[in-house]
Amino acid sequence: MNPLKRLFKQTFIYGLATVLPRVISFFLLPLYTSVFENASGYGQYTNIYAWIAIFNVFLAYGMETAFFRFYHKSEDKAKVVSTSLISLLATSVGFLIFALSVKQWLSSVTDINPDYLKFTTYILVLDALVIIPFALLRANEKPMRYAVLKTVNVAINLGFNVFFLLILPELAENAESVLMASIYRPNWEIHYVLISNVIASGITLLILLPGYFKASYTFDSKLWKQMMKYAGPVMIAGIAFTINEVLDKILLTQILPSDIAETEVGKYGACYKLALFMTLFGTAFRMGVEPFFFSHANSEKPERTYAQITNYFVILGSIILLGVIVFIDVLGKLLLHNPVYWEALNVVPIILLGSFCLGIYHNLSVWYKVTDQTKFGAYISSIGAIITLTINIAFIPKIGYMASALATLAAYGSMMLLSYYFGRKYYPVPYNMRKILFYLSVSILFSTLSFYVFNRNLIAGSILLLVFLGLVYKMEGDNLKSIFVKRGN
Question: How far is it, in rounded angstroms, from Cα 268 to Cα 313?
């Protein structure tokens, strides 16, 4: 099979694994924006999950990427699996003991209620324990099983959220339902959200538990040191990336006046979710392409294939950017049931473009991963984190959450340009920059016209989208047919 055709097939399945669960979880957005009527409750939720994202990076400490690298190049793959499992199992248990022991101190640092921290810790540990089992599915090219498990996880989470937040309160009001009345707790919305997550993560671990029983539990300290040397910069890059991704919500909570902070964070966090269409696409593409990069690093002229992949990523990303902006009002009313959240819709185009830049950065970052120069990923992401911190701290007091949106775009845009610059020097890839810049520029121009000039008029925006799709078909129709229609060698 044509390697690009195989890549897109796997990316499509990983896309389902990423998009389908998130589509299911999108039902949570209208649910939460209905339950948290004044947006402050959603602000607390946003702050908790921002901290979860940060701690997730520390608990993974780059081991997933290191696992891919060493699994593909090692002859003793079983030893790579067992060493990785033991490492993450030990650190996860250690974190569980530590976090529960210093719960009050963590609460003061994170502004998370101590009652919520207990459940947050369980979520973090359970998610850390499935990192290698899920990575093994990807490494062995089993995207369908990966997709099913991810979908089951989110479906369970959604089901319990609906039960706890919608069904249980109604059942508790029924005098005949004594059991439900004893279970239900008023004003426990955030508790129920976290408990639903714990249940879903716990069931997922149970399903993947056979992977732990099959492991040989041989710990190779020499291999572990090599993996940690590779993983260290990846972890630093991950921390910096997570700062770029979630620290704005935390800083908004800390910097804005206390009487409006949670409400403003709630509005921003809810509208930020609408940019997830681009994030979903970038994540699905990255999950399909990352194992592909490593497995084809030693093939003949892989750089040419990498260039083609980035070209198609930009084309598809440009369509998504314009499409979401054209239908932004429709999406806002569909997913944000409470009009109080609509005020922050103006951040969506900026966040979308920033997420697009991040996706391009991940595609460009192949050079430092396949050449084992992951330190550059740490450097570049750290620069992005500094930009995020600087802009947020300087401008949140003046323009509120709009500063956070602009910081996201500035950070990811800078990371994209830096990766391209250093990649040309250390691992030249023949990108078709004229074509990439053309698609990117036209998509941004049409998006600007749709959102700002035509004031989000659906008819005008739809015409611009159709024109752009026509341009893509005229320029890329034959190439796309050669990948998806003709049989590969």
Answer: 27
Summarize pLDDT for 125-141 with one digit per residue, the tens. Answer: 999 999 999 988 878 87
For the stretch 423-480, pLDDT in tens is 888 888 888 999 999 999 999 999 999 999 999 999 999 999 999 999 998 888 777 6
Provide the residue ranges of all domains of the chain, joining segments of one domain with +: 3-484
> Is the pLDDT reported for residue 489 higher than 50?
no
Residue 360 near residue 416, CB atoms below 8 Å: yes
DSSP 231-254: HHHHHHHHHHHHHHHHHHHHHHHH
Give the whole-angstrom CA distance, residue 205 versus residue 202. Answer: 5
Angle between helices 458-484 and 433-448 (to 10 degrees): 160
Angle at which helix 28-35 crosses helix 143-162, to 10 degrees, equals 20
DSSP state letter for 372: T
Contact between 242 and 49 under an 8 Å Cβ cutoff? The reply is no
- The 3-state DSSP class for residue 140 equals coil
Structure tokens at 361: 């950065």
